[in-house]
Amino acid sequence: MRIIDAHQHFWDLEANYLPWLTDKPVNFRYGDYDAIKKSYLPADYRQDAQEFELAASVFIETEWDPTDPLGEVAWVNSLRKRESLPSVMVAQAWLDRDDAESVLAAHGQTDFVRGIRHKPKAASAPGDVVPGAPGSMGDPAFRRGFSMLAANGLSFDLQTPWWHLPEAADLAEAYPNTQIIINHTGLPADRSDDGLAGWRAALMRAAECPNISIKISGLGQKGKPWESAENRPIIRDTIEIFGADRCMFASNFPVDSLVGTFSTIFNGFRDAVEDFTPGEQQALFHDNAARIYRIDPTREV
């Protein structure tokens, strides 16, 4: 199957500064991240993805040195020239910073940058959401930066827990010309009945907005391997809510190598939609990412 991987990363820890991987022990939602505190480059990625025919990939910013968002773009450009990967990029920008206007203008003038990612401030639980909190999607400073995306031809990759997706819907309705792409399936980490009910309701609210799409990725659970039986219902529910024309499959490699191999994850995706039509499968694995991230077919590898 020919695939476009809609969410992947590269990093060279010997040459570049990624504070989250180099400054302190990493212990995020998958637990101990020590196994990925090493450089990960196109040769490593091609080895991981060798079972599949890789058409293109979308590089997502890696929380590079926040004082130098344009430095990561220059580094990715050198990778593209040398390795023909990645195909396109979602770059770092801080929408509530004073330099947002100049950074977004620079990204908009870079031919392989398709959008930006800025992780808004998030509450730790559904009941703790404070509307308009500084750094959140309701913050006027955040919205000022967000308002500049469309004019620069940029989309917005959104990584936030599902309980902030109603805010994302409000943002999408206020700026209907800006494409929003939810990362990692809205982070359905709580697999209890109540947790999944809240996640589904939040996805339904986001799906009301035609300018919101979603990447099915990041489905690992702390301390557990990636399993089709556990993730198939999540995959199916997401596609039912958003439709097969607004969902994309993605590896989140190398981060998700902590919970499964590339083959385990993509074969799990394939098994979950084995009864879908060939056209729907083509959309989920390739065409939607090509359209949403505006990938030139001549750049397919």
UniProtKB/TrEMBL annotation:
<dbReference type="InterPro" id="IPR052350">
    <property type="entry name" value="Metallo-dep_Lactonases"/>
</dbReference>
<comment type="similarity">
    <text>Belongs to the metallo-dependent hydrolases superfamily.</text>
</comment>
<feature type="domain" description="Amidohydrolase-related">
    <location>
        <begin position="4"/>
        <end position="295"/>
    </location>
</feature>
<dbReference type="GO" id="GO:0016787">
    <property type="term" value="F:hydrolase activity"/>
</dbReference>
<dbReference type="InterPro" id="IPR032466">
    <property type="entry name" value="Metal_Hydrolase"/>
</dbReference>
<dbReference type="Pfam" id="PF04909">
    <property type="entry name" value="Amidohydro_2"/>
</dbReference>
<dbReference type="InterPro" id="IPR006680">
    <property type="entry name" value="Amidohydro-rel"/>
</dbReference>
<protein>
    <recommendedName>
        <fullName>Amidohydrolase-related domain-containing protein</fullName>
    </recommendedName>
</protein>
